[in-house]
Amino acid sequence: MAAVRTVEETLGMERARQELELDLGEFEVALQLAELRTVPTGPGRRKVPYAEVERLRAEEAFPQALRRRVAVVGSVDGSELIGISRDRFAKLARGGLISPVRWYANRYRAVVWLYLADDVRRFARDHPGLLTGRLPADLREALAEGEDHRARSWRARRAAGFLRQAADAWGEAAVWAELLGPEATAQTVPDLYERTYLRRLRPGFPPGGIGSYAVREVVEATVLADHPDEIAAARARLTEALHRARAERAAPHPELPPAPPGGPAPTVTQASAQAPDPGHDPDRDPDRDRRGWRRLLRRR
Questions:
Q1: Domain boundaries, position 174
Q2: Which of 54, 77, 134, 270 has the greatest number of beta carbons closer than 10 A?
């Protein structure tokens, strides 16, 4: 007998994907586009309400209609879809007129961008004048100067999706911290424990599947903000979100050390400044380590 589910029940991501008859890539796009709602179940963990799965399964022409909404195309298929050359399609994308929804790194460590097929069709329908003839002068000039908006457009789209899912202001701040990366975040958030809490809440900016050939530098160059305007905007949004988050509740801190005799009690900021380096072992004896290495070398 099949189990009876309630509307309050939630499903794990893999189970929800199977119920919706989507492959992994299609399911990731569905989550990113908020085709189905998810709920937080812990730091960095989410599940799908069963009612959301039921809603999508009840749609007409399921699962074909859902698959059509989350279908992606590369530059070759995208250009064929709207009847233009691949070179023209790439120029429109680099100019920021068509925003990618996913990406992966190929065996040559080059980023391959993927676009929502519905976005490509909509662009062709709304901008028929850009499909033929010379491109606008300002777009040609920007492309000649090396402008490429694809990574920035993807990051903005990804951040918007995560912000829709953020449970509170701390969750919003974690999205901007993830976009900025550790170094830029440390300049904006001096408190060690706040940065640790933001790392716990970070949503992750995964690509659409980077394969075994991708290297860390390729990933970081794609997922971290790199344009000065983008970085400045992310820092401002992080500062604003933190202001609201701190008003709601403080980030988790260990117990503060006792006040010295006759002195004021240490503040949270002081405790953060005195916090040990997570990679430092206070019980480690460096002299003992060096003696051990010398003994090992003598034996060899």
A1: 152-248
A2: 77
